[in-house]
Amino acid sequence: MSAQWDDNQPIYWQLRERTVAAILDGALEEGQPLPSVRQVAVDFQINPLTVSKAYQSLVDDQLVEKKRGVGMFVCPGARARLLASERERYLTEEWPRQADKIRQLGLDVEELIRAATPSGEEST
């Protein structure tokens, strides 16, 4: 993970979103431990309380569980719950804006597929 932070969002939220992305991408699998608060704080040169706040928000959303004296672990079913909620959020919040822009620019499906397909590959 990059140590670059966006000044427009709290660091704890950005760290939370990076952890969510790691779960969605499979870099953090269900049952796998999260890096320790201390290690993340050192790696990113941030306050351990910031890391704790990010991790607590994941616990509050039941994506991560605390095992006293052992650490934090990705909960069973976390990836599936994240996929469902992120898909819903995308379809209700992001896609309508993108669809409006596509209509505004007069793009068609074939153009979009060509633009998204790396050169040399055929789309299905």
TrEMBL record:
It comes from the Bacteria. InterPro entries: Tscrpt_reg_HTH_GntR, WH-like_DNA-bd_sf, WH_DNA-bd_sf. The keyword Cell division does not apply. It holds the Pfam family GntR. Residues 9-77 form the HTH gntR-type domain. CDD domains: WHTH_GntR. GO terms for molecular function: DNA binding; DNA-binding transcription factor activity. Keywords: DNA-binding, Transcription, Transcription regulation. Signal peptide: none annotated. This is GntR family transcriptional regulator. It comes from Wenzhouxiangella limi.
